[in-house]
Amino acid sequence: RGSDNGKFLAPGGEVTGKRRPLVDLGAVEPGLVNAMFTRSTAALSLVTLADHCRYRLLANVAGDSYSARLKYLLACGSTLFQVDDAHREFFQPLLRPGRHFVHVPPAMHTLPHQVRR
User: Fold this and answer.
1) Which residues, other chains included, contact 111 with Cβ-Cβ below 8 Å and sequence gap of 6+?
2) C-alpha torsion angle, residues 105, 108, 111, 112 (rounded to 10)
3) pTM recorded for the entire structure
């Protein structure tokens, strides 16, 4: 989960390897990243699409969540950190890193530096 102080919001879903680096980074740097795994069946772990717009920073990481949510995250006006994913939405070829989102490699090793910039 995130907070409205600019920390990341990592929505719930099942534990997946693709989200593990974000959660691990949150354990090492909790002041920078506030992310955890939650159970998708727990009512308190649900974050609506509208709730995402309360956050200054958002991360779009593949996993067991709403697969077509990228367009809603972009509409929030928040800084979006997009992690590489083999699956693409039809409009993604039109998006440009640095203009529409901040590109993040799957290992997320560059994320702390990118957030601090």
Assistant:
1) 21, 22, 25, 33, 81, 104
2) -150
3) 0.73
